[in-house]
Recover the amino acids of this structure.
């Protein structure tokens, strides 16, 4: 301190050495207690969480699905799987982008003016990105990835998708859903009577056991169906009587015209759903069989017709949906595991990419440091041997820098796994299923994540969820600690203690 | 010929790789561009438009002007009638939390950094640095839970229960089972959700940032300066506070500004522990800022309230969150840029 005033150093000289030593010791003591405070805070934090949560930590908690209402039933399974999926996507996106940017900034020294300006902009931008509140990234992810500015359709009706089949879903009376394949999302849903044909064709329809109609709902439906069929039989009788000449009990001439007429009238005014043409054709065919039969012999044929109709109605009801309840077939999407759509929606993919953006500055900065730590003599040697820029990077710089890059990246991932704010807008904390790893699961699944689930439990009023929350935090901390342990191990293994 | 082809191939490969890396760089810049674009676009649809209110009659649309946003002292986006959108209560809440956090993190962080860099034996450092790293890596929801279940009860002195007194009769209040009701000793001063506990938790979260960045700055000061100071007969304390610390001041200030930016942008802790009612600045004025024991709402807290679905999408409150987010973004950007400028302008480079 050359510019310090002279009288100030004179004052120093006059100070008593004992007092100076004491001040020094006092300050050191204060500093030690402050540093110890940091350790104490960590201990108290872990202890308070462990005491509350250890009791809840069992296999059922680790694998079970969340419960909104009952704290004792709430499980962490979907959240754990969701977080791991997010991590994978986050790493796959953030590492190439981050390391690439770091290489550009460190290895390609710009010579042209424009490039130098670009370098400066990128470097300054990274510093700024690191300071952006993570919840703002959530807004970015929602607008730019989940909805894509609504430029290519909406998340529910994506402008671009592949890996999805569409089916029409009917519900039959035995509580099962019946799926009929459709050509594409825009294909018209086959009406109930057309569903009949599909229903009979086992290749086209695919039965999946899904609980759709309850037993209580079935009985009234069956009664209604019987009533409708009684109506058909009554009309059939009347129609035949009308066809016979008055008082005559001889053989009946059933012409094609007569059969068509009776069949046409048969279903008028009946509240049967769907396309009646199929019913009419069936009735006409049955009526033609009666040609020349005597009145007495009509009975078995009539019974056959009614039975046929009943079967048909049952089948149609099965294929069509809830009988007489006005339920239309539903269009459903069956997704393959590689399903992809263009507005990503609020999906695992969106969440992972958003987290990648959040940790990108960390990955870049730590990669930059690792690359910078490679001695430039090695680089020069590679170039002097006639290697190109990329060859020197690929064969000299990267192999040396990889441990450092890994350490930084793992630390970045551990930051990402604990972030709740950016995915708040993207996740569904109430989902019960395990995202991605389930039948029909894909990267477009809705998801929840560990920190988010913890947040949702914390915001439950009262203390009921406290031990559940604490157990969730324990799992989260355990995952984080293992991440950190790997990072520390890598650092010591390859760099030696710093 | 194969030689020439391989050279040309190499040239193309080099170009292609450089182009790929430049694309990576462009992508990082595009992220900032997109953030600004999205926030600006959505904010422009908030001001001066007739928007449906969050609650109440949808026909009575609300219109907010820029003047209201920065001139009003009331923040009541959910009010069915006369919803008000003055940003100051949210900024006030943010200042409360960040203020408490910095009052905790800056002195303690600076002291532990000085100790780590100037005093601590290498072995203690080797233990403390990872501990700090672990604290820095603890998810913020955990700190929020910590604030809610440990710090707040401690501030209320919940271990010291006192009987509740009916203010009108002066008699102790009885519960349903006939037992007298009790409340924590300081429950009147510190409510269940409060700015103080949230601020302290944010401070704990910021402590490792301040410590490790400050320590980096202190260690960047060359040994020669210290040795010169010791050679003049100065004690460690004098060397640390009068030589090393001033020499590293720009880095220290930048570290503190970064910590402030983190505290301002901190989300989950305040969402969990600070409550969800914006300050009533218009009633009691700026003095309300000092009621740290009462619940409050920060800018980020409001965003969480909207995003987690407490407020219906599409209404005026939902649009308001973009304006709030833009304000937040500008504040943190200002802090980061300021930190960068200070480090560049006033940072001394030692060779």
């Amino acid at each position: 301190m050359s510019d310090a005033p002279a009288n100030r150093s004179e004052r120093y000289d006059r100070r008593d050495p004992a007092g100076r030593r004491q001040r020094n010791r006092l300050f050191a003591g204060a500093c030690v207690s402050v540093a110890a405070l940091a350790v104490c805070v960590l201990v108290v934090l872990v202890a308070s969480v462990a005491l509350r949560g250890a009791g809840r930590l069992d296999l059922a908690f680790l694998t079970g699905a969340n419960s909104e209402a009952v704290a004792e039933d709430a499980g962490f399974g979907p959240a754990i799987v969701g977080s791991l999926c997010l991590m994978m996507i986050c790493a796959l996106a953030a590492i190439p982008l981050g390391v690439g940017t770091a290489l550009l900034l460190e290895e390609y020294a710009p010579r042209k003016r424009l490039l130098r300006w670009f370098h400066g902009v990128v470097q300054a931008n990274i510093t700024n990105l690191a300071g952006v509140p993570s919840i703002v990234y959530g807004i970015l992810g929602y607008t730019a990835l989940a909805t894509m500015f609504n430029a290519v359709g909406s998340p529910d009706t994506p402008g671009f998708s592949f890996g999805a089949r569409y089916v029409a879903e009917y519900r039959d009376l035995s509580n099962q859903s019946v799926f009929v394949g459709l050509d594409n999302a825009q294909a018209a849903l086959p009406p109930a009577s057309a569903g009949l044909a599909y229903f009979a064709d086992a290749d086209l329809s695919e039965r999946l056991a899904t609980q759709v109609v309850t037993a209580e709902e079935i009985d009234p439906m069956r009664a209604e169906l019987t009533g409708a069929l009684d109506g058909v039989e009554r009309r059939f009788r009347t129609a035949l009587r009308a066809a016979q000449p008055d008082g005559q009990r001889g053989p009946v001439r059933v012409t094609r015209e007569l059969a068509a007429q009776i069949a046409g009238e048969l279903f008028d005014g009946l509240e049967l759903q769907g396309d009646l043409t199929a019913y009419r054709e069936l009735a006409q065919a049955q009526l033609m069989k009666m040609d020349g039969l005597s009145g007495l012999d009509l009975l078995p044929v009539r019974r056959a017709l009614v039975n046929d109709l009943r079967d048909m109605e049952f089948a149609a009801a099965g294929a069509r949906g809830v009988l007489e309840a006005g339920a239309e077939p539903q269009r459903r999407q069956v997704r393959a595991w590689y399903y992809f759509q263009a507005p990503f929606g609020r999906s695992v993919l969106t969440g992972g990419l958003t987290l990648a953006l959040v940790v990108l500055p960390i990955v870049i900065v730590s990669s930059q440091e690792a690359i910078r730590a490679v001695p430039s003599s090695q680089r020069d040697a590679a170039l002097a041997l006639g290697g190109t820029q990329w060859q020197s990077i690929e064969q000299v710089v990267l192999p040396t820098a990889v441990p450092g890059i890994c350490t930084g990246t793992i630390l970045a991932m551990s930051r990402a796994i604990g972030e709740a704010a950016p995915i708040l807008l993207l996740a569904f904390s109430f989902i019960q299923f395990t995202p991605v790893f389930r039948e029909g699961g894909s990267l477009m699944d809705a998801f929840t994540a560990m920190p988010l689930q913890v947040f949702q439990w914390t915001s439950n009023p009262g203390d009921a969820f406290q031990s559940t929350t604490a157990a969730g935090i324990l799992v989260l901390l355990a995952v984080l600690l293992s991440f950190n342990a790997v990072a520390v191990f890598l650092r010591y293994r390859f760099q030696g203690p710093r | 010929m194969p030689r020439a082809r391989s050279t040309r191939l190499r040239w193309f490969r080099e170009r292609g790789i450089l182009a790929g890396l430049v694309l990576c760089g462009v992508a990082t810049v595009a992220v900032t561009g997109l953030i600004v674009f999205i926030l600006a676009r959505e904010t422009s649809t908030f001001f001066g438009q007739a928007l449906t209110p969050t609650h109440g009659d949808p026909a009575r649309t609300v219109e907010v002007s820029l003047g209201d946003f920065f001139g009003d002292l009331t923040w009541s986006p959910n009010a069915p009638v006369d919803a008000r959108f003055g940003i100051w209560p949210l900024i006030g809440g943010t200042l409360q939390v960040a203020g408490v956090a910095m009052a905790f993190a800056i002195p303690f962080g600076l002291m532990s950094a000085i100790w780590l860099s100037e005093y601590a034996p290498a072995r203690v450092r080797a233990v403390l640095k990872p501990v700090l790293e672990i604290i820095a890596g603890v998810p913020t929801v955990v700190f929020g839970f910590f604030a809610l279940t440990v710090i707040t009860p401690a501030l209320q002195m919940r271990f010291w229960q006192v009987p509740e007194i009916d203010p009108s009769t002066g008699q102790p209040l009885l519960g349903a089972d006939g037992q007298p009701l009790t409340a924590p000793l300081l429950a009147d001063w510190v409510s269940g959700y409060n700015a103080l506990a949230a601020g302290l938790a944010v401070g704990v979260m910021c402590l490792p940032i301040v410590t490790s960045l400050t320590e980096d700055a202190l260690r960047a000061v060359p040994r020669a300066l210290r040795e010169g100071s010791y050679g003049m007969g100065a004690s460690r304390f004098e060397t640390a506070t009068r030589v090393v610390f001033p020499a590293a001041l720009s880095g220290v200030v930048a570290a503190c500004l970064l910590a402030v930016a983190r505290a301002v942008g901190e989300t989950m802790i305040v969402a969990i522990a600070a409550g969800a009612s914006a300050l009533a600045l218009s009633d009691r004025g700026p003095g309300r800022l000092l009621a740290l024991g009462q619940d409050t709402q920060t800018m980020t807290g409001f965003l969480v309230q909207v995003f987690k679905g407490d407020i219906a999408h599409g209404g005026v409150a939902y649009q308001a969150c973009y304006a709030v987010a833009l304000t937040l973004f500008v504040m943190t950007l200002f802090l980061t840029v300021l930190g960068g400028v200070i480090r560049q302008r006033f940072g001394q480079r030692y060779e």
User: Anything to note?
Assistant: Confidence is low (pLDDT under 50) at residues 1-6, 193-219, 318-327 of chain A. Chain A touches chain B through 88 residues (CB under 8 Å). The two ends of chain A are 30 Å apart (CA to CA).
